[in-house]
Amino acid sequence: MMKKALLMALALVAFLPALVQGQEQNQAQVLTQTDEQQDQMDQERRYTRYGVMFYNLENLFDTINNNGEYDKEFSPAGARQWNGTKYWQKEHNMAYAISQMEVKGSPADGPVIVGVSEIENITVLQDLVRQPEIKDRHYQIVHHDSPDRRGVDVAFLYNPRFFRVLNVTTQNIGKYLPDYPNFRTRDQLTVTGLLAGEKVSLMINHWPSRLGGEEQSSYLREAAGRMARETIDSLLRDDPNQGIIFMGDLNDDPQNKSCSEALGAKKEIKDCTEPGSCYNPWWNILNKGIGTLGYKGNWNLFDQIIFTNYFLKHYDSKDKPTLTFSRAEVLNRKFLRSSEGDRQGYPLRTFSSGIFLNGYSDHFPTMIYLVKEVK
Predict the structure, then answer these.
(1) Roughly what angle, to the nearest 10 degrees, separates helices 122-129 and 84-99?
(2) Which residues constitute the domain of residue 299?
(3) SS (H, E, C) 84-146
(4) CATH number, position 218
(5) In-domain check, residue 186
């Protein structure tokens, strides 16, 4: 059973080199092919596109130390000397990045949903959506304070013109780790609403890290995967006719047990035949050498958006009477990439080795595109 909760914290506001080059070439080839197919389809039928985006904002923290030693790092007295100048530059950079993610053929300016992770509180999001680059989108916020020791949360930004919130719940991993009662991490946030007139539930996650080693910590992410799968099943028992979109920084790749077994996300569309089965488009994208974060010449794709086969019913048909998956993209835009040093082509992060780089995030954002026929 999902833990029921009242609508909480709703705020309406006004508002490498060679390896990397290979990745860019693969990315360009993949997107050119899918765009050509989409453009040909658009010439025959009229469709509206909607973008659903996920972005790890890499420690979007305010400057106030309200969590003792865990928060000291992001304060003026901490090692990063995190002051107002750096904070507002970070806010500007994040807003600019979101503003640049165009969704061709959409009635909205950019994505209608933006799931975010590694944010400290609702205040930093209120500051974000007020930034000049995106304030005209009038993004609203769904946020939940998690029990994470560092104070890191997940949240949703949504365009109220295209999405209306019906219900918000949270799920805690503790049930799935009975032998570790003191383990604290981010809760799962689930928002049910109407997207383009259709009932859709969105789940935002930030799974436990690989601290201590990938294999040694896998059980934590597998528990998170079981929690997510149970949430999906519970949502579908409540209403089997809804679509479900699951997203987050999973700290695992699509082929890892947490995603492929515990959550049960499939690599191929043809295998998503059972009711409520989930498709993971990032599996094949990672196999092409395209990722969202890199380390020592290797790419990972932790930032995933997975969804139920509700969005695949009309995938092979010219008729798209309901929201239908079109394609998935790693948004590795040039301005988001480091242009020099041993991290050339990797995400241009905020800090590196303690030095303020005035970058964006150590993760690239991701986006799926949904289409629906205009009647």
Answers:
(1) 60
(2) 10-373
(3) HHHHHHHHHHHHHHHHCCCCCCCCCCCCCEEEEEEECCHHHHHHHHCCCCCHHHCCEEEECCC
(4) 3.60.10.10
(5) yes
Q: Is residue 3 part of a domain?
A: no
For 216, the token pair is: 């040694």
Q: Across the chain, where does the E strand assignment appear?
A: 10-11, 47-60, 113-119, 140-143, 153-158, 163-171, 188-195, 198-206, 243-249, 265-266, 278-279, 293-295, 298-300, 303-308, 324-330, 351-352, 355-356, 366-373
What span, in angstroms and rounded, lies between the C-alpha atoms of 134 and 10?
A: 18
CA distance 218 to 108: 39
Q: What is the pLDDT along the chain (375 residues), one digit of tens a residue?
A: 444 444 444 433 333 344 444 444 444 334 434 555 655 555 567 899 999 999 999 999 999 988 777 788 889 999 899 999 999 999 999 999 999 999 999 999 899 999 999 999 999 999 999 999 999 999 999 999 999 988 899 999 999 999 999 999 999 999 999 999 999 999 999 999 999 999 999 999 999 999 999 999 999 999 999 999 999 999 999 999 999 999 999 999 999 999 999 999 999 999 999 999 999 999 999 999 999 999 888 999 999 999 999 999 999 999 999 999 999 999 999 999 999 878 889 999 999 888 999 999 999 999 999 999 987
Residue 4 lies in a domain: no
